[in-house]
Amino acid sequence: MKKSCIDLRVVGVEHLNEKYVLLRLTDSAPLPEMMPGQFVEVKVDDSPQTFLRRPISINFLDEERNELWLLVAAVGAGTRRMARLKVGDALNCVLPLGTGFTMPQTPDERLLLIGGGVGVAPLLYFGKKIWEFGARPTFLLGARSAADLLELDEFARYGEVCVTTEDGSLGEKGFVTDHSVLGSRFDRISTCGPKPMMLSVARYSRRSGIECEASLENMMACGLGACLCCVEKTTEGNLCVCKEGPVFNIRRLLW
Ligand SMILES: Cc1cc2nc3c(=O)[nH]c(=O)nc-3n(C[C@H](O)[C@H](O)[C@H](O)COP(=O)(O)OP(=O)(O)OC[C@H]3O[C@@H](n4cnc5c(N)ncnc54)[C@H](O)[C@@H]3O)c2cc1C
Ligand code: FES
């Protein structure tokens, strides 16, 4: 898939809570084709601290409005700068990068998409693509508290939404792997979120004999497979998450 380096224009900035911001970006030309699970490398201007681009998942692609959505958790200098963007600003992005999630083969495939924290970001666009294919995914979204559960109405457009919160303020209390929906039968699980959560999802999938893909969020620099700073040990040796991933079948990971 051809990569582009584009100055996208900010057309929407929605502060979802103190930490999270949803950026809607567009271009005068049609945005390139992107697969769910792929990411963009964002250039953050104005600071030597943020010389390296920051990887951010493709949260949503609205083909009708020619909009790309990025869901950003402001955790450090680069993401805080992104959270301060205003409508009309430009944001230079290299996209689309990496591999995507595996799409269902038939509409009756039962897919469970498990996200935690900002790891829910790539699952919205994935859910939309699954829905367009004719299948109806189940989303299982976990967070510390109700205020940290993001885009629930958007997810509900494409499938059933189940939630867990650690403090019990919304949905079932506990972690995603405690949720009762795991009692249902699924053909495949796709997951993205904090590593301990994904390890736990991977253990559950192995025990239950369910295929599972995980989207890794290793630290990245070049995003193009050149600097080796994102390597993950796999059954095939060290692989660059930015190029060979970020989505891996857990059978390839030494988890
Ligand atoms: C493939 C991929 C997709 C991602 N998608 C998103 C997304 O959709 N939305 C989003 O908000 N973030 C996403 N991230 C994480 C995001 O890239 C980092 O939070 C960001 O680079 C931090 O930059 P910063 O300048 O704000 O923070 P820094 O000042 O660089 O670091 C601040 C803190 O964040 C930690 N951090 C830095 N990079 C990462 C990382 N990759 N994973 C976890 N912690 C990190 C640092 O250890 C430090 O504690 C993704 C990461 C990857 C690899
Ligand atoms: S980020 Fe440079 S090789 Fe992956």
Description:
- The structure is a single chain.
- Helix content is 17%, strand content 34%.
- It starts with a strand and ends in a 6-residue tail after the last strand.
- It has 255 residues and is an alpha/beta fold.
- The model has no long low-confidence stretch (mean pLDDT 96).
- Helix 3 links the parallel strand 9 and strand 10.
- It contains five helices and 16 strands.
- The strands form three sheets. The chain has a seven-stranded antiparallel beta sheet.
Largest sheet: spatial strand order: 4-3-7-1-2-6-5
Strand composition percent: 25-35%
Bound molecules: flavin-adenine dinucleotide, FE2/S2 (inorganic) cluster
Broad structural category: alpha/beta
Principal-axis shape equals: globular
Oligomer: single chain
Task: For the record, give the distance between the C-alpha atoms at the N and C termini, rounded to a whole number.
Answer: 29 Å
The radius of gyration over CA amounts to 17 Å
Short description:
The chain is of the alpha/beta class and 255 residues long.
List the helices and strands and how they pair.
Elements: E1 4-15, E2 20-26, E3 39-42, E4 54-57, E5 60-62, E6 67-73, H1 77-83, E7 90-97, E8 111-116, H2 121-133, E9 138-143, H3 152-156, E10 160-165, E11 172-173, E12 188-192, H4 195-208, E13 211-215, E14 231-234, E15 237-240, H5 241-244, E16 247-249
Parallel strand pairs: 8-9, 8-12, 9-10, 10-11, 12-13
Antiparallel strand pairs: 1-2, 1-7, 2-6, 3-4, 3-7, 5-6, 13-16, 14-15
Bound molecules: flavin-adenine dinucleotide (FAD) and FE2/S2 (inorganic) cluster (FES).
